[in-house]
Amino acid sequence: MKKIMLIGFKDLTLAFRDRAALVLMLLAPFLLTVGLGFVTGRLSGSSGASGLSDIPVVLVNQDQEPLGDALVELFFSEELAGLVAPVAGADLAEARQLVDGDQAAAVVFIPQGFTRSIIPEVGSPALGEPGQGSALRIVIYVNPTRPTSAGVVQTIVEQFLARVEAGRIGGQVTVTQLITSGRIQPGQAEALGQEIGERQVSAGNATAIRLEKVSAGEAPMEFDILAYMAPGMALMFLMYTVSYGGRSILAERAQGTLPRLLVSPTSSAQVLGGKVLGIYLTGVAQLAVLILASTLLFRLQWGNPLGVAVLVLAAVFGASGWGMLLTAVARSPNQVASLGSALMLTFGILGGSFINLDALPGPIQWISRITPNAWGLDGFTSLALGGGLEQVALPVVALLVMGAVLFLIATLLFNRRSILER
Amino acid sequence: MELRMLKKVLAIIRKDTLLRFSSKAELLYFLVLPLFFTFLLAGGTQSGEGDNRIRLLIADQAGSPLSAQLIAALEASQTVRPDLLPLEQAKAEFDERRASTLLVIPPDFDLVRAQAGGVDLLLYQQPNNLNSLAAEQALLAAINQAAAALQTAQMATAEAESIQAFESEAARRLYSQDSLLAAQRLRDTAPERLVVERASTADSVEYDPAASSSAGQMITWVFIPLVGISAMFAYERQRGTLRRLLTTPTARATYLLGTITGQVLMALLQMALLLVFGIFVMKLNWGREPLGLALVLVPFALAAAALGTTLGTFIKSEGQANGLSIMIGMVFALLGGCWYPIELFPEFVRSAVKVLPTTWAMQGMLDLALRGGGPAEVLLEGGVLLGFALLFFAIGVWRFRYE
Fold first, then answer.
1. Contact B175 A177 (CB under 8 A)
2. Number of domains making up chain B
3. B97 contacts A358? CB cut-off 8 A
4. Is residue B69 within 8 Å of residue B101, measured between CB atoms?
5. Among B121, B339, B371, whose Cβ lies nearest the Cβ of A209?
6. Same domain membership, residue B180 and residue B76
7. pLDDT < 70 positions in chain B
8. A-contacting residues in B 80-119 (Cβ below 8 Å)
9. Is residue B195 a part of any domain in this protein?
10. Are B217 and B295 found together in one domain?
11. Smallest CA–CA separation between A15 and chain B, in Å?
12. Which helix (H) or strand (E) holds B108?
C-alpha cells in the first residue's frame, strides 16, 4: 500500500510541476468560465439570464398620438431601464442606417395614423367598420447579427400590441353587447367604447389564467448560472487530466522508467495501482483547486459541501476509468494525448459543457449518459439548487458504476497487451 | 533564385504535411470533430422533423376546450413546439434535463372555473436556461391570447350588470357566453399590426441562424490546428532537426513562409470541405459569394498560421504548445463570438475583443451569411485580418531561432 501511495503522490507532484499541463488543467477551464460568465451576464453585472443589457434601439414615432406615444414611453420606462437603451429618431432612413452599420439592434417605426387606425377620432367611422383589416402596421427593422437583442425588442412590441388589441376588442364587444341588450343607445357607443378600451389596456395582462412558476430546484433559491458553467468547464478539462495521467504510463514505458520500476521488488498490480492513484489524486486536486478558486473569486455557491466532495470523488473516478481505457487502447503517449483531447471536446459537447442537453435531440441525450460530464453536471446543478446527498445519489452511483466497468475493461486490455510485464 | 526558393518552400510544405498527418488521430481534428460539432451545433440534428422550435413538454390533465385552445395557440407559436405527454413521463424527461420547460395543465383548467375566479397553470423551468425563458415568453403570449377573451367577457358582463341587473343567473351566464364568443371571433379576425424586416439582406439570402453556428465552428476548428503550428516548431526544435537547417542555405523567412503556406493550404482545404458539408448537408447558402468568402477566409488562415508561428518562437516544448493552442483556440473562439453571439457580451468586452482575429473573421462571415453582403462589405475585415497576418509574421521572423 505504501508503494502505491508513493507512486501516486509522485505522479501528482509531477503533474502539478508541469506548466504545460497546468495550462489545460487549471488555466483553460478558468478562462473559459470567465468568458461564459460574461456571456451569461454573471460577471458583467447585467440582470436576467443573459449578458444582454442596454440594447440599442431607435424609435421613430411618426404617429404622435396616444398609442404611438405610449409605446415610446414603454421603451423609456423604468421597467425596461437597463435592458434597452432607446434613442428617439426623427428620420427612418437615418435610423435604418444605424442598424445597417451595426450601431443599433433594431428600429421601431410607428407610422403616422397608427393610433387612429385602431381608435378612430370622434365622428369618423365607428369601431368595427369595414376597412379595419387594412390597419397600419408598426415596422421593426432588425439587425440579423444581433438576433437575441432584436428578439427582445420584437417581444416588447408584440406584448404592447397584444394589450392594445385586447383593449380594442374589449371596448367593441362590451359596447356591442350593451346596445344589443338595450342597455345603452347607439349614440353613447363611441365615447363608452373608448373609455372601456383604455381601461382594458391599462388593466395590463389578463388574470383569468395565472402562470405559477415552479423551479427545478429542491428548495426555492436563486440559481447562479456560474454554478452550471464552472463545473461544466472543470469536468471537460478533467478529461484532459485523466488522459494526461494515462499518457504518463505509456511515456514511462517508452522511456524505460517503467521497466526499471518493474525490476524492483514492486508488483505490476502495485505499479498500476500507484499510477491509477496518481491520476485519481491529480483529478481530485484539479477539481478542488477550481472549486476553491471560483468560490473565492466569484463567490460561487457550490452547495452542500459534503455532497460536493462526494460528487467530486465519484466524477473523478468515472473520468479516470475513461483515462485508463484510453491508455489501454492507445499505442503511444502521443496517441493518448490526441485521443484524449478529442475525447475531452466530444464529451464536453455531449455532456452539456457547451450547450444545454435539452437543446440536443433525444438519441444524443441518451448517448450523453456515457459521459462523466453529463452525470457530474446533473449532480452539481442539483447541489447548486439546494439539493443534498440524496439528490446526488443517482449521479454518484452512475459515475461509480461507469468507473468500475471501464477500469475492468482497461485491466483486461492491459493484461492482453502485457503493458505492465517485466 | 526564385525557382530554388520555390523548391525549398514546396519541400517544407511536403515535410510539414507528412509530419502533421503522421498520426491518423490528426484526421479527428482536421475533419471528424469539426463536422461533428457543426452538425450538432448548427442544427443538423433537429429532433422535430425539421422543426427547430424549442420543445415544450405539456401534461394536459384537463382535456378541456380551454386547454385545447391554449395548446392550439402554442402550436401556432414560432418559438415553441408543444409535445403532449402523460404527466409522469413529462416529469421524468424534465428531471433528466431532456427538456428545458414543462407546462402542467391541472384538471380544473376549464372555462367555468376561469370565469368564476381564474385558473392556474404550473410551469417548470430549468434554471437560467435561455430556451426556457423564450418558452415562457411564448407561453405568456398564448395565455394572453386565451385569457384576453375571457377577461373581455367578464368585463362586458360586469359593465352590463352595473347599468342594469340580470334577470337571472342563467341570463347572466348567457350574456357572458355571447360576449366570449364575440371576443374570440374578433380576435380571430384581428388584422396584423406588426411587420418585421431584416436589415440589409438581399432577397436571395434566407435568414438562417444555423449559418452563424456553422461559421463559428469553421473558424474554431481551423484556428486551433493553425495555432498548433507552434507545436510543430517545438517538436522539431526538441528533435534537433531545426538546428540541422542551420547547415543549409535557407533563410528564416523562407522556412517560415514554407511552413505557413503549407498549413494555410491545408486550412483552406479543410474550410472548403466544411463549406461543402454546409452547402450539401446543412443546406446553407455558402456558395452565394465565393469571392467574399475567400476575402475573409484566406486572410484569416494567414493570420492564424502567423499567430501559431509567433507562438512557436516563444514556446519551449511540444506539450506546452499543444495545451496552449487548444486553450488559445477555445478562448479566442468564445470571445470572438464563434460560440455565442457577441451581442451577449458587455460593451467593454465587445470593444476589447477587436484585438482578436477570430472576432474579425466571425464578423466577416456574418456579413456574408446574415447581411447578404458581398466582397465590398468584407474588405475591412479582410484587410484587418491581413494586417494581423503581417504583424504576427514579422514578429515570428524577428523572434525565430533554429535552436
1. yes
2. 2
3. yes
4. no
5. B121
6. yes
7. 1, 43-52, 127-130, 200-209, 246, 402-403
8. 94-100, 114-115, 118-119
9. no
10. yes
11. 12
12. none
Cell of B55: 420543445
Tell the residue number behind the cell numbers 440534428, with chain if given: B45
Residues of chain A with Cβ-Cβ distance to B37 below 8 Å are 345, 349
Does ipTM surpass 0.90 in this model? no
> Would you tell me how many other CB atoms lie within 10 Å of the CB of residue A77?
11
pLDDT along chain A (422 residues), means of 10: 79 80 82 81 57 83 89 89 87 88 89 84 52 70 83 85 84 87 81 72 64 61 71 90 83 75 73 85 92 87 91 95 90 82 88 78 84 92 84 93 93 75 55
CB B304 within 8 A of CB B55: no
> Residue B385's domain spans which residues?
2-43+208-399
Dump pLDDT digits (tens) for B98-146. 788 899 999 988 877 887 777 889 998 876 666 777 788 788 888 877 7
Task: Classify residue B337 as left (phi > 0), alpha (psi -120 to 50) or beta.
Answer: left
Report the residue of B343, B353, B368, B371 to disrupt the A interface, i.e. the one with the largest count of A CBs within 10 Å.
Answer: B343
Give the side-chain half-sphere CA count within 13 A for A264: 8
> Does residue B80 sit in helix, strand or coil?
strand
What is the C-alpha end-to-end distance of chain A, expressed in Å? Answer: 20
Domains of chain A: 2-42+224-417 (no CATH), 55-202 (3.40.1710)
